[in-house]
Amino acid sequence: MTTLTDSSPNQIRAACEAASQAAPGWAAAPVVQRAALLRALADSLQSAREALVPLADEETHLGTVRLNGELDRTCFQLRGFADQIEAGRAQPVQDDPAVPGAPPAGRPRLTRIAVPVGPVAMFAASNFPFAFSVLGGDTASALAAGCTVVVKAHPGHPLLSRAVFELATAVLPAGVLQMVEGAGIPVGVALVRDPAITAAAFTGSVRGGVALWREANARPRPIPFYGELGSINPVVALPGALAANGAALATQLAGSIAMGCGQFCTSPGVVIVRDDEASQAFVKQLAEALAAANPHAMLNAAIRAGFNAGVARLHGRAGVKSLLALPARETAPGAHLVATDAASFLADEVLREEVFGPSCVIVTVRDAAETLQVLHAVEGTLTVTLWGADEDTADNRELVRAAQAIAGRVLFAGVPTGVAVTAAQQHGGPWPSTTNALTTSVGYAAMERFLRPVALQDAPGWLIAARGQA
Amino acid sequence: MTTLTDSSPNQIRAACEAASQAAPGWAAAPVVQRAALLRALADSLQSAREALVPLADEETHLGTVRLNGELDRTCFQLRGFADQIEAGRAQPVQDDPAVPGAPPAGRPRLTRIAVPVGPVAMFAASNFPFAFSVLGGDTASALAAGCTVVVKAHPGHPLLSRAVFELATAVLPAGVLQMVEGAGIPVGVALVRDPAITAAAFTGSVRGGVALWREANARPRPIPFYGELGSINPVVALPGALAANGAALATQLAGSIAMGCGQFCTSPGVVIVRDDEASQAFVKQLAEALAAANPHAMLNAAIRAGFNAGVARLHGRAGVKSLLALPARETAPGAHLVATDAASFLADEVLREEVFGPSCVIVTVRDAAETLQVLHAVEGTLTVTLWGADEDTADNRELVRAAQAIAGRVLFAGVPTGVAVTAAQQHGGPWPSTTNALTTSVGYAAMERFLRPVALQDAPGWLIAARGQA
């Protein structure tokens, strides 16, 4: 396996300096030009599919079906951001005309524009070698916003990272995209500390993300750090939905838990059911479907070790019953399912920790009130899924309120894995699922992380005509 | 002088708990109801003007003309937020219809709404006893967004704070607005640490704000901390503007520097001029106009001591020439003006520190390039003012770019003091002027600090109809 050599401090400085030098030109480039280059990146990725997908599979074991789909998604979002900026989304303008007279009613003309923040440090994820790596969503949104980018390649897919980076630098103006490499902590720390860096985007573990977030805050001049960290994504399966459709939902949920060997930030880690017949049948069906799933190898040895430790911890907790503990088969882990009750779940924070991989905790609750307590204990998560909350009842309103309070996305059908790239998407929830719950790392609102509002007061006509592109 | 008794830990906890209990009801209240109550707060403030303004003057020395104007502004913004939320601004909705087919093009229906973050801790400012205190902009924007508020009253105007709080609690539903008191650090720290608090807004010094920001980040579950800290607000006076209009601009600028005894976050602390005749005449006129100004007493002894130390430091720096050092008259300080060159300014960070009060540093530059260097050295500021940059020239484009890079508001006429409350306003700039440059504490976008996006996936009709008010 190819491993990265850590970029030296001088190399990191040089990459950040190059991104800084290129920043004004890229920020000033007309949006039609930026859009054309984003589309050219997508075309270039797509043309290189035959070479890139096998390379990605060799390095990540995610399988060519998934990786082809992920490459499609990566191209789709590059083109989507191009469409968005051509439609004016990177240049929001609010123009308040002057009002004669004394304040507070009287006022000068104020024109609110947005300016790119400057060079962005981007930390690639292990589990999305295309969609959250060198040319993934964070890079696409930063480039679209008019920011240059310094990517820290993920050590899990070094050859793919280099290939995509090479392809990208052939398309983009000099300096706009930079890449540093490093398997250890020092490279990431040096990148976040570099004075030229004005914001950082990260997808990964709570531990790694929080450490870098602290570095960003400890700078002489702190910068925004957008970390997408861990999440347990509760699914609330109400009796009505299970009675009507339990078997199909069990199959769908097992697919979501096992998908990509459970290595998704939106993988459902907790399922809340009632103590009734339909729920018991559903749990049995879920265990059967999970037992039939065929997980592939995990991304790397550290993730595998983390999963093994996580499920071992789960099986050993007080009040926890093991429903499924499949043995590992060569490089692939087996799926795990445990069950507990609300009181145990509320009492034991270990049961609320993310286990990254194909495992899930069933929590049986007695009533609607216990469901709310369980959700409240989760605190922060990317998603909550509510099956069977379609009617406008007081209980369902309470449930929706509780879900909205802890999540950035609330689903009323389907499973949380698979995050659509749209303008309305919100992939970011309360701490610890992200470091800034008011922002998203998927969907077109992701650009807003890299655009800073500026009010122009009594601006000359030429400047307003240039709409902040000056 | 009345002093506050620090609220006890139990009192702080009780205030936060009450705000937490009231939060769901206030978040769910229809916007017409929230708007009506914001207007009722404005009416109530206005009715109490005869009692409140003298009380404010006694405690702050800001004068009844200014304080009457500030009360008007406070009422204006309460009503403005009411208008904004009735127009739908607190409930932005982006509705992306489902698209049939496989991802990435195929997608479920996604509806992006915004939910109030929960109870907000609000730290009142000393220098705006109405507009950034108990019912000021931060409180108004949080209430408008659907959040309950716990105000930490400023010890500089305790009686006014209590009177306004009493008036507000007679209008608002129980628990929606809470107040704690404390002159020392522990009350603020306890408030930011309270588990019920979900966000904090602060207006004050860099030192105090950064300390509380660190507390917000050190929580087990960190919260957003919106701090509006210090700013030196450079004014770039280009030769053309001074040749055409120097005397009038000198008078206007002196008024801005001396206004409120210089105790504004937007007070101009640095003026950049060229080494030519018009600029020399302007500086002379500015000194004369400042000498004729009649500052009133400062807000408190600590601010006064800080000002004395600040100007003493300025006069003593290498490369600095004293132009004006008026003696104090009883309780009021004298105005101060010093001059330096670009090289000294760039070399000495003391010259770039805010001196809160009626003082200003003139920096003479040789050319456009030195102007850019001086602006770049300022790093983060609420405003930059550009006089004489009306033509569309390469130099002016560079200048505007440099100003936008360091400021949240760029003025092309007038002076930076006096911040209009509009939708386009941006009162927030790069660190250290604020802790989050992507947000504003003045103007209607201030609400966005307290609204968290949530994407509803395949939401039932009743929920979309309720637009996040469920």
From TrEMBL, chains A, B:
Pfam families: Aldedh (PF00171). Residues 3-429 form the Aldehyde dehydrogenase domain. The keyword Oxidoreductase applies. It comes from the Bacteria. Keywords: Oxidoreductase. CDD domains: ALDH_KGSADH. Gene3D superfamilies: Aldehyde Dehydrogenase, Chain A, domain 1 (3.40.605.10), Aldehyde Dehydrogenase, Chain A, domain 2 (3.40.309.10). PANTHER family: ALDEHYDE DEHYDROGENASE-RELATED (PTHR43353:SF3), SUCCINATE-SEMIALDEHYDE DEHYDROGENASE, MITOCHONDRIAL (PTHR43353). This is Aldehyde dehydrogenase (NADP(+)). It comes from Pelomonas parva.
